[in-house]
Every structure is written in C-alpha cells, then in structure tokens.
Amino acid sequence: MQASPFKLRTLSAALIAGWMSLVAGPVGAQDSGPAIVITPGESRAFHAAVQLFSDSGFPAEPQRARGLREEIEAGMEFSGVLLPLGHDAFLGAEQTKSLVTEARREDCADWTQGGADALVEGVIGGSETELVVEYQVWDTARCRSLARGQLKRVHSDRVRLAKLLADEVVAAFTGTPGVAGTEIAFVSNRGGEREIYVMDADGGRQRRATRGNSIKSFPDWTPDGGAVLYTSYGDRVVPGLYLTSRGAYRPGPILTGILPKQPKYRGVFDPKGGTLAMVSSLGGSTAIYRVDRDGGNLRRLTQGGSINISPSWSPDGEWIVFVSDRSGSPQLYIMGSDGQNLRRLTYNGSYNTGPEWSPDGRWIVYETRIHGQFDLWLIDPSGEINLPIVSHPRSDESGSWSPDSRKVVFSSTRRGRPDLYVVDLNGKNLRRLTRMQGENLQPAWGPFAR
Amino acid sequence: MLRTGHWVEEQRIEAGQQMRRLLVFSALAHVALVLALVLGPGPRPLRAPPALMVDLVAALPLAAPAPVAPAPPRKAPAEPAPAKPAPAPQPKVKILPKRAPAAEAKPRAKPRPKPEPVLRRRARPKELAYADALAQLRGEVGEPAPVAPSPAKAAPAPAAVEPAEVAAPSRGVRISPELLAWHVAVRRHVRAVWITPPEFRNRGLAAELVIDLDAQGRVRGRPELVRSSGNPFYDDNAIRALVKASPLPAPPEAGRRTVVFSPEE
C-alpha cells in the first residue's frame, strides 16, 4: 500500500514496455510488419472554430450571438486546451443555420483544411426570462459529432453560460472539462475585515461570501463545490471551522462537539467529502487529526511535540502531505491517511510550506523560502523531481490547483500588496486576477463546474 | 541558487584560461610550421589517391534531386526533468502556531536574483539525415524500394537510429534500411499532427491501430482500433491523428500496417 502512489511511474513504464513488446512481436509480424511506434512531439493546443450561433431568442438582441461567441472563445482561451480559430481562417460557413446530423454534415474537409480540429455550432432560443442555447461539438477530422447538449440561464448570466459551454467543448474533445466555469475562493480585506470571497477562475464576478466581525482564513471547497469551509473565531474564544453554503449545506460552525476547548486552525475535506483532516493544538504541540464530517471517528494522525500543519489529501484519499518542523525546520512530509508510513518529502531548502496535492496526483505544489522570499515549486510524490513553477524577487505563496491540474492560482506581492495570479503548469500565461482591492490571499480553486 | 551561479562563473573563468592556453599553443605551432616549411626539404610530387567507386544508382533509385526537408527541431519534453534546488542556507526557523486563523507573517526582503532555471532533459539525438532523405526520395518516386534482407547490410542501420525507432527490430524482427527509414518518416509525419494533451502523457496509455495504405501512402478506409488504450478519448485522438496525417509518406509496399500511439516520453 505504501508504495502505490510512488511507484506508479515505474509500474506504468513496465506495463508499457511489456505491452509494446507484445504488439511489436506477434501482431506486427503476422499482419503488417513491425509496428510503427509514434511518440508525442511538442505540446500544442487543439483549435476550435466557433460559429456564430443562429439567434431566435426573445427579446431580439442583434449583438447577442456575436457576444456569446466571444465569451465562449474567451472561456476556451482561458482553459488553454482548445484555442479558438481565427475567423479569417474559416473555410466553412460563418453562422450556424441549424444543428445537423452526421449524415448531413458535408463541410468537414473545409474545417480541417482551415486548421480546425473541432467545430462548435449552436442555436440560441429561449424566453423573456431565460436564455436557452443548444450546441453541438464536432470532430472535423473524423466528421463525427462528439457532444450535443443544451444550457439554460437567465439572460444576465450569459457570460457564465458561455464559460460552461466552453468547458463542455473541452470535455467533448479530451474527456476532461475546461476550467473557465470553475470558481476560486480566497481571503480579502478589501471591505475592512478579512472575509471569504469567491470569484470566477478568470477573475470575474468577485463577490463576498461571508459577513461578520471576525477574521476568516483558509478557505477550502467541499468536493462537490456546494460550500466553502473556512476558519473563523465567530463568537467563540478559540477559532473553529465554519461552512458558507449556496444552498445544499447548512451554513455555520461544524464539528463543535469534538475537541471543544481546543482551537481548530484549519480543516480540509478529503476527495470524497466524508472526512476532514483538521489541525488543532493541545499543550503547545499542533497536530493533524482525522475526523468524519459528522464528528465521528476522531483520530490523531501526528504524534509528538512538534508542529504539524497544512494538510492536503492525495486525490485517492490514501495519503496526506503536510508540514512539520520535527527536523528543526518546516519541511513537507507524507503519511498515510491513517497516520502510518510517514516519510519526509523535501530536503532542499530550510523552509518549505503550503503544500497542495494536484488533482491528478502527479505533483505537489509548495512554497519554499529563498532569501526571505517565497517561490512556488513543484515536487512529485516520490520526491525525485523538484522544480520551480514561478519565481520572482517578491513572494509567491499559497498555490492551489485548478481541477484539471493544468494551472495554479497563487498569491503574490510582486506588485506590492498581495494579489492573486494564475499561471499554467509550465510557468506560462501568467494572469492577474485581483487588482487594487486590498490584500488578496489564500486562494482555493474549486472543483469542476456542474 | 547562489552556489549554482558561482559554479557557472567558475566554468567561464576556467574556459577563458583554457582558451588562452590554446591560443599560445596555436601560435607556437604556427611558428614551428613556418620554420619547418622554410628550413625543410622541398615539396614532394602530388600523388592522386586511389579512386573509390560508389554505386549510387543501386543504393538510391533517384528520379530527380529532391530537396530534403530539414528535421523539425525537437524540443525538450514539456515535462520537467529532475532538478534539485539549492537555496542558500537559512537560519533555523521554528514555525509557531499563530493566534489562528491569522495568516503566518513572512518576512519581506529586497529583490534578489531569480533562481537558476530547472535542468531540462537532454535533447534527443537527431534522426538520421540518410533516413529522411531516403524516405523523401521514396515518396517522390512513389515506388516500392528494393528490400535488402541481408543481415550484413541491415545490421548497421538500426544501430545508428535512436532506440525508440527500432523497438520492434530489436526484438528480432528483421527490418530493411528502407523500411526503417519509412518508419522514421511516418513517425515524424504523424507526430506533426498528433496533438497530445498533458493529461494523456505518461499515464501508461497506448493504443494500437491498423491502417490500410495504398502505394501513395493514403489511408484506405478508416483506421481500425485493434487494441484500446482504455481511454476512449485517447483512442479517438489517435484515430484523428491518422486521418489528419493521410497521406503518409509512400510505403515500400501497399498494405496493412500496425501503428502504436504511445505517449511515453
């Protein structure tokens, strides 16, 4: 059990080697000679042509179709998987007349030759109160319909609808949705006190999610995206854990029945949402506990008098990466979710904190202090690969993964006060999300939009 | 990081010193050569070297000189390679639980130099120019190449090609240089159109397809998925790549071919 996440690379390589030896031998020999083995070249993005959707919606709005197309293209651009094809390159029709079937699609070659891997067509309809968009995604090379669906939103929510549609297009092509429609929770003092805020992943629709007079910290999403867990003093003497919800959950304090007199510094849901890793202190030492969401099965996972904080679950829920100073300086450690099989992960640098495990399980982002400033680094769970993702003379902190594991949002003081930025895993496409609105800290990227 | 910077600087200084030594040596050698020419015996009569006869026609069925496309530069894999950061030693720091939930205060310091970029994987060696030229020429003439089954001739070619190219032959399947060169050309051709998102890489996925090629390299009918990767999106992506890649470089012989898409670097 201990070896499973760390030996994956070796195991997969062995499987591939064995598999390849099978195909290279019998199949190739009997039928068509030795197999031609294709390995990938450089990474590139797919390109999608987005037609102007035909618009019969009510009330009539001349620029609605054009605006919707721009918003869909912006959503695809943000995710970075399917980039919008320039309209000048369109060899097929600029506008959708109606959604067609595979048998009636005759212009696939035009789209392919124009450079489109995908074609997005759509029809806008709806009523005075509701916008209804039917869409279809095509694989132009194979001339196949990959997905066909319908999205509904109130008219004022058109941008959101466009982002969700853009994510659906990405999902149709790769099996993993885009992240334009996802949200990020964070801490900001723009209103005076530190409160929890939520925004779209591209920085849009920034809005306050909590109210009160106490400091709020460490937001973390429920795995279904229905609520944000955070730490606050509320009306208590010691800090505790609270939920802010958009309907499915009851907002307010949680786990009040356990460790009632101990401060609860931070809580993090496991990937299934049924269990929390919780940081609490007793007698000078800070420990990580595991507890069911209803307060049952409380169990202390870290022992001894050292400080153990910042837990983050592996995507399979079997492991927890956390920070401990048991070696004399803050370093990352990994333990089983039962507290067993403890292992130190970082050895470089004297101050490594803030880990978060990527949703695909391949990386852990963390912050390391160099010359008094923090940079974000990646390390794989085996500890063999360790590299910077963003580095700047000012501090970059609190990395949090997009649900597709392609991007990281973080807080940076590169322009003075802390602001939130998002960057691709390869360090490219840096984008600032918050501007001149107090201090913006501790981002937590939510799950895929539903 | 500092240590790395110093190390680089030291290398530069050492290289400069070595260059100076080489220049002195070169100057002395030139002086010695001039002296030898001036003081030495007179020039000997020129003798023509023995002629080497090369049967170019037998090696390559040239129809017309064809420009050889330069090999596309192979970038280092997007995936990062191992690197160990070496931050300067910091004073021992004890993290203390704050009066939570206030965030941990972190000291701010003056701007500092950026850390050295991470080490990248070594670039893979370039493919054989011979193989490219041969494949291109076969495509130009559109004729099946004469197969040279002689082990003595076939043996050196695979050794000169990167190991990934000869995965199949290394298992004992004998392959002619012409076929090998065609494999290389096909591989390059398909890679140019195969888009592989990061989520498909290094996951142990591999899909096997069989295609039916005509003499010009056109894929007849639809690629046939004979072994799924287990991920339908990956399989679809492989089929998509073959459809987009058609026509492939003209094969030595028309017929069915097995293609394996493996995203392992």
Structure in words:
The complex is a heterodimer of chains A (450) and B (265). In chain A, the strands form 7 sheets. In chain A, strands 2, 3, 4, 5, 6 and 7 form a 6-stranded mixed beta sheet that branches. Mean pLDDT of chain A is 90; it is low at 1-30. Chain A is mainly beta and 450 residues long. In chain A, strand 21 and strand 22 form a beta hairpin. Chain A folds into 2 domains: 46-174, Rossmann fold (3-Layer(aba) Sandwich), CATH 3.40.50.10070; 183-445, Neuraminidase (6 Propeller). Chain A has 4 helices and 31 strands. Chain A is globular. By secondary structure, chain B is mainly α. Chain B has a domain at 128-261: Fusion Protein Consisting Of Minor Coat Protein, Glycine Rich Linker, Tola, And A His Tag, Chain: A, Domain 2 (2-Layer Sandwich). Chain B has helices at residues 2-39, 56-59, 129-141, 151-154, 156-160, 177-191, 232-245; strands at residues 207-213, 219-227, 255-261. A 3-stranded antiparallel beta sheet of chain B has the order 2-1-3, covered by helices on one side. The chains are: A mainly beta (450), B mainly alpha (265). At the A-B interface, helix 1, strand 1, strand 11, strand 12 and strand 24 of A face helix 6, helix 7 and strand 3 of B. Strand 1 (36-38) of chain A pairs parallel with strand 3 (255-261) of chain B.
